[in-house]
Amino acid sequence: MHNPPHPGQVLREYLGNMSLIEAALKLGLEQQTLQRLIDGQSDVSPEIAARLAAGLGTHVQFWSGLQQQYNRPATDPATHPHNQHKAG
Hints:
This protein is an all-alpha fold. Helices cover about 55% and strands about 0% of the residues. The model has no long low-confidence stretch (mean pLDDT about 90).
């Protein structure tokens, strides 16, 4: 499993038991677009982030941030374990 998770995995949790059709209508997305996002086959674009935020009562930055974290290479110095400061 990728850490951090793809935004589609987080979205799946937000949608709960909502059907794909119901979710697509609520979010103003095509069913195929939503399915590809949930399956981790597409990224959260700024437009999709805005639709998710409006439809789910979240913030655009939340969805954009999830995508940025997912895209960040594992070798990014900011996320490398040796560069993490320990509290204490």
